[in-house]
Amino acid sequence: MLAEKLNKLKEKIVEQGNLVESMIEKSIRGLLTRDKALLIDVLQVDEPRANEMEIEIDEMCVNLIARFHPEAKDLRTIIMILKMNNDLERIGDMAVNISESALFLIERPQVKPLIDLPKMAEETIQMLKDSIDSFIKGDSNLAKNVCERDDIVDAYRDQILRELITYMISDPTTIERAIHIERISRNLERIADLATNIGEDVVYIVEGKVIKHGRYKETEQGGV
Amino acid sequence: MKSYHFRILKSKIISVFLTLFAILSTVPFLLVLYFIIKNGISVINWEFLTSLPKPVGEPGGGILNAIVGTTILIIIALILAVPFGIFTGVFLAEKGDSKIAFLSRLVVEILQGVPSIVVGIIVYLWIVKPMGHFSALSGGVALGIMMLPVVIKSTEEILKLIPREIKEASLALGVPYYKTILKVVIPAGFSGILTGILAGTARIAGETAPLLFTAFGNPFLNFNILKPISAMPLLIFNYAVSPYEEWWAKAWGASCILVVFVLTLNIITRLISKR
Amino acid sequence: MTDIVLRTENLTASYDEHIVVKNVNLSIPRNSITAIMGPSGCGKTTLIRCFNRMHELSPKAKVEGKVILIEKNHQIEEIDVYSIDPMLVRRKIGMVFQKPNPFPTMSIYENVIAGYILNGIKLKKSEADEIVEETLKKVSLWDEVKDRLHKKGTFLSGGQQQRLCIARALAMKPDIILLDEPTSALDPVATLKIEELLEQLKDTVTIVIVTHNVGQAGRISDYVAFMYLGELIEYGPTDVVFTRPRHEKTEEFLSGKIG
Amino acid sequence: MASRFTRKLALNKDKIFNLVLSFFAVLLIFLGVGFFLSLFNASYLAFKKFGIGFFAGKNWDPVQEEFGALPFIYGTILTSFIALGISFPFSIAISIVLGEYFQKGFFAEILRYLTELIAGVPSVVLGFWGLFFLVPLVREIEIALNVPPYGVGILTASIILAFMILPYSASIGKDAMRLVPNELKEAAYALGATRWEVIKKVMIPYARSGIIAGIILSLGRALGETMAVTMVIGNYHGIPESIFSPGNTIASVIANEFTEATGEVYLSSLMYLGLALFIITTVVNLIGRFILKKLQH
C-alpha cells in the first residue's frame, strides 16, 4: 500500500543522492589525482544514469499522487521528493561541469597548489551528505545545521576567487586555467546552495514549516 | 366550533369505549375455553386415553380409536402436503413470474378459501367412490389438500425473504442448482417452513367436515389406511349430537384434548414466526 | 502482460435484448489485481459475472463471444469456459459479493469449507481442519475467530464476514477470484483491511475486483479497466491509466466529471 | 478435473430438479381445475334436470325427488350477513385498539392472542359448546320474547359464525390501520385534531379498502363454514320465517345429508349445491384477496 510504495520512493531518491554525491567526489578526486578515466566515467556513465533516475522518480511521484491521493505528511514528502529530485539532477549537471573543467585542467600545468578547493569540496559534499541523511532520518536539526553551513562554503568561494585574481593579474597566461578553477568553485558553491534547499525541504517535511527566504525567524514564533 | 376541552374529552371517552369493546370480544373465547376445561378435565384419565369406546350403558371406555385415527390422518396429510407444498413453494419463489406460477398462485388462493366441506366432496368423488368405501387414506388426502396452501404460502414467503446473495454464493462455489436449493436455501428458510407446517397441522387437526364423507369414523382401533378410521373431531361430532349424557362427557374430554393440542400448535407457530 | 490467466474474445452480454456488455476483449494477467471501474450501470458487474457464468442465471440473460481460462499445471491448457459445466467453471473462478453473505445455517468452520460440504466432497477431519486453519490465516481472520470456529458466521462484524466469504472462495483453491464491490457495504477501517488482504493474496491467486470507487482502484490494482456504457474504453497498467489516460472519457471519469 | 460423465450428470440432476418443481406446480393447477371439473361433472345430472331454476326452487323433498335450493341459499346468506353485522363493531374496535391505541406491549399481545385464538378452536368444538351454552341462552331469550323456543336456528348459528370470523376481519383491519403513514397522522395532529378525530377522519378513510377486504374475506369464511352451523341451525328444510326459526345453509345440508343420500338425483343435487358453494366462496375470496393485493402495492 502507500507506506510501502513511499518507502521505495525514498530509497530511490537516496540512491539518486548517493549517485550525484559520488559524481562530485569523483570529479574532484579526478582533478586532484589527475585521473582522466575517473572524469570520463562521470561524464559518460554517471550522468546518463542520473538523468534516467530523475525521470523514473518523477513518474513514481506522479503515480503515487494519482493513485493514492496522499494527504498531510505523505503529500509533503512526495512533493518535496519531487523538488529534491530536481535539485539532485542539477547537482549532477554541476558535477558534470566540474568534471569538464577538471579534464581541461589535468592536461595542463598547475596554476597553483590546490589547497582551499579540496577543503571546499569536502565541506560541500558533507553538506549534501548531511542533507540527504537528514532526509532519511527525518532529522530537522541536522537539516537546519546544513542550512547554516552554507556561509562556510560561500567564504571558501570568495577566498579562492581572491587568490585567483592575484594569479591572473601577475601572469595573464594563467587566466584560462584560473577561470576553470573558478568555475569549479562556483559550481561547488551552487551545489551547497542546492544542498541547503534540500535541508529546507526536509524541515518542511518533518515540521511542516517554511524556513526559506528569511522566514526562519518568523516561523520560530509560530506564524507562517 | 366546539370547545377544545370537549373534543379531547370525547376522544378519551371513545377510546375507553372502544377498548372495552375490544376486551369484550375476547369473552367468547374465554367462555369456550372455560367450558371445555371445566367439563373436559374431569373426564380425562389414563383409561380415557388408552382404551376403546364401550357401548352406551357400560362404564369406562375411552377414545383411543380417535387419537390413533387423528394421528394417522395427520401423518398421511403431512406425507402428502409437505413435499408437495415445499416443492411448489420453491417453484413459486424461484420462478415466480412464469405463467405456471401465476396459475398455481391462483389455485393456492382458491384452495385457501375453499370450504372444507367442498374438499370433502371432491375427495369423496376422487377416492371414496372409485374405491367403493370410506378410508383413512381418503381422509388423509382431504386433510392434505386443506394443509397444502398453508405450506406453499409459508414456503414461498420465507424463501423470498432469503437474500439472493446466499443463493448466488452457493452457485458461485460451483454447487449445482438443486443442491443449492436443497442444502442452502431450504435450510436457511427452515424455521419459516416449519412454522408453515405447524400452522397447517393446526388447521387440519380439528377439521371435521372433510372427514364426514372420507374417513367416516370407526368405533374400533384401525391401522389399515384403506379402511374407515375414527378421528377426534368426528368422534366429538358424533357424540355431541347423540342423545346420551355419558357420550357428551366423552365429547367434552375429547374436545379438551383437541383444543389444547390445536391451541398449543397455534401458539408455538406464533412464537416461532415472531422471532 | 505475458502470463495471461483469463482472456475474453468479443464478449457481449445482454438482458432481455438489452446489451449491457459490448464486444469486450480483455486479458487478465496471472497473480495480479485487476480492477474494473466505471460509473454505475456501465456493465462492470455483468462483465465479471460472465467470467464464471453467473450471468446466465438471470432470467433472459444471453452471452456471446468467448471466455478462455488458461490453466498452468504441468503444461498450459486453454479452457473455453462456455464449453464445460458451469459448476466446474465456478470452482475454478470464485466469487465474492457486494454484501457479506456467509451461509446463515453454517458455523464459521463450515462456511470456510462450504464449497466442499455442498458439493458433496468428503474431507477427512484432519484435512478439513488444515484447510480451515490455513485459509483463515490467509485472510487474517484466524486469530480473531479461532476460539469460536463453531459459532455461526453471521455473528461476526461486517468486515469479518466479508473476509470469511473471501476465505470460503479461497478454500476451493480457485485460479481467480472475482470480487464484486466487496467493500461497498463496509466502513473505512474494514475496507482498508480488505484492501491490504487482497494485496497479500495476489501471490496465490489472481484477483479481479469491480469497484465504483476510483480511489480503491488506484490503491490496490496493478491493472485497471475502465468501462463506459457497456464498452471497455481503456485497459492497462494502473500507473499508466491513472496518470496518462489515452481516452477522454477515462480522464473525465478519473477527475470525477462522470460517474 | 471431473470426467465428462460427471459433468453431464450434474447438469441432468438440475434438469430433473427443475422438472420436479414444475411438476408439482402443474399438478397443483390440475388439482384446481380438477376440483371444478369433478364437481361440475357430478352435479351435471341435477343441472340437467333442474337447470338454473334449482336455486329458485323452494322445496327440498328427497322422497319426491324434488330439489330446490332457495331455502339453503337464503339461510346461508342470512346467517353470513347477520354474523357480519354482529362482528363488525367488534372487529372495528379491535382494529382501532390494536392498530392505533396499543400497537405494542403486553396488553396488546394478550388482547391479540385472545381475539385471534378463537380462530384456532376447531369448529366442531365451537358447535358443541354452542349446543350446550348458546342454545339454552337463546331459548331463554325466545321464551322472554314469546316466540317458539327452539333455541337452535338462524340467530344461534349467526352468533357462532360471528365469533369465528371476527379474528379474520379484525386482524386484516388492524394491519390496514397500521399501514397508515405516520406523516399523515402527524399532519392531522399538527392541525390540532384529537386522537379520535385523527382515527375517524384520517385513519379509517385511509384504511377503508383494507377493512373492506377483511370483511369480504370473513364473509367467504362464513359462507362455507360447516360444522358449527350444522350443529346449531336446526336443520329445517323450509324458508325460515324469522331469525329465531331453524333453517339450513348449503354447507349444513351437505354435511347432514351427503352420507345418507340415496338416489343419483339426490346425490347430484347435493353436488350441485357444493358446486354453487365452491363458486360463490371462490369469487368472494378472490375479490377480497384482489383488494388486499392492491393495497400492498
From TrEMBL, chain A:
<dbReference type="GO" id="GO:0045936">
    <property type="term" value="P:negative regulation of phosphate metabolic process"/>
</dbReference>
<protein>
    <recommendedName>
        <fullName>Phosphate-specific transport system accessory protein PhoU</fullName>
    </recommendedName>
</protein>
<keyword id="KW-0813">Transport</keyword>
<dbReference type="InterPro" id="IPR038078">
    <property type="entry name" value="PhoU-like_sf"/>
</dbReference>
<dbReference type="GO" id="GO:0005737">
    <property type="term" value="C:cytoplasm"/>
</dbReference>
<feature type="domain" description="PhoU">
    <location>
        <begin position="14"/>
        <end position="101"/>
    </location>
</feature>
<keyword id="KW-0963">Cytoplasm</keyword>
<dbReference type="Pfam" id="PF01895">
    <property type="entry name" value="PhoU"/>
</dbReference>
<dbReference type="GO" id="GO:0030643">
    <property type="term" value="P:intracellular phosphate ion homeostasis"/>
</dbReference>
<comment type="subunit">
    <text>Homodimer.</text>
</comment>
<dbReference type="InterPro" id="IPR026022">
    <property type="entry name" value="PhoU_dom"/>
</dbReference>
<dbReference type="GO" id="GO:0006817">
    <property type="term" value="P:phosphate ion transport"/>
</dbReference>
TrEMBL record, chain B:
<keyword id="KW-0592">Phosphate transport</keyword>
<keyword id="KW-1133">Transmembrane helix</keyword>
<dbReference type="GO" id="GO:0035435">
    <property type="term" value="P:phosphate ion transmembrane transport"/>
</dbReference>
<comment type="similarity">
    <text>Belongs to the binding-protein-dependent transport system permease family. CysTW subfamily.</text>
</comment>
<dbReference type="GO" id="GO:0005315">
    <property type="term" value="F:phosphate transmembrane transporter activity"/>
</dbReference>
<feature type="domain" description="ABC transmembrane type-1">
    <location>
        <begin position="67"/>
        <end position="269"/>
    </location>
</feature>
<keyword id="KW-0472">Membrane</keyword>
<dbReference type="GO" id="GO:0005886">
    <property type="term" value="C:plasma membrane"/>
</dbReference>
<keyword id="KW-1003">Cell membrane</keyword>
<keyword id="KW-0813">Transport</keyword>
<feature type="transmembrane region" description="Helical">
    <location>
        <begin position="247"/>
        <end position="268"/>
    </location>
</feature>
<dbReference type="InterPro" id="IPR051408">
    <property type="entry name" value="Phosphate_transprt_permease"/>
</dbReference>
From TrEMBL, chain C:
<dbReference type="GO" id="GO:0016887">
    <property type="term" value="F:ATP hydrolysis activity"/>
</dbReference>
<keyword id="KW-0592">Phosphate transport</keyword>
<feature type="domain" description="ABC transporter">
    <location>
        <begin position="6"/>
        <end position="254"/>
    </location>
</feature>
<dbReference type="InterPro" id="IPR003439">
    <property type="entry name" value="ABC_transporter-like_ATP-bd"/>
</dbReference>
<dbReference type="GO" id="GO:0035435">
    <property type="term" value="P:phosphate ion transmembrane transport"/>
</dbReference>
<dbReference type="InterPro" id="IPR027417">
    <property type="entry name" value="P-loop_NTPase"/>
</dbReference>
<dbReference type="InterPro" id="IPR003593">
    <property type="entry name" value="AAA+_ATPase"/>
</dbReference>
<dbReference type="GO" id="GO:0016020">
    <property type="term" value="C:membrane"/>
</dbReference>
<keyword id="KW-0813">Transport</keyword>
<dbReference type="GO" id="GO:0005315">
    <property type="term" value="F:phosphate transmembrane transporter activity"/>
</dbReference>
<protein>
    <submittedName>
        <fullName>Phosphate transport system ATP-binding protein</fullName>
    </submittedName>
</protein>
<keyword id="KW-0547">Nucleotide-binding</keyword>
From TrEMBL, chain D:
<dbReference type="GO" id="GO:0005886">
    <property type="term" value="C:plasma membrane"/>
</dbReference>
<feature type="domain" description="ABC transmembrane type-1">
    <location>
        <begin position="73"/>
        <end position="288"/>
    </location>
</feature>
<comment type="similarity">
    <text>Belongs to the binding-protein-dependent transport system permease family. CysTW subfamily.</text>
</comment>
<feature type="transmembrane region" description="Helical">
    <location>
        <begin position="205"/>
        <end position="223"/>
    </location>
</feature>
<dbReference type="InterPro" id="IPR000515">
    <property type="entry name" value="MetI-like"/>
</dbReference>
<feature type="transmembrane region" description="Helical">
    <location>
        <begin position="147"/>
        <end position="168"/>
    </location>
</feature>
<keyword id="KW-1133">Transmembrane helix</keyword>
<feature type="transmembrane region" description="Helical">
    <location>
        <begin position="16"/>
        <end position="40"/>
    </location>
</feature>
<feature type="transmembrane region" description="Helical">
    <location>
        <begin position="72"/>
        <end position="98"/>
    </location>
</feature>
<feature type="transmembrane region" description="Helical">
    <location>
        <begin position="270"/>
        <end position="292"/>
    </location>
</feature>
<protein>
    <recommendedName>
        <fullName>Phosphate transport system permease protein</fullName>
    </recommendedName>
</protein>
<dbReference type="InterPro" id="IPR011864">
    <property type="entry name" value="Phosphate_PstC"/>
</dbReference>
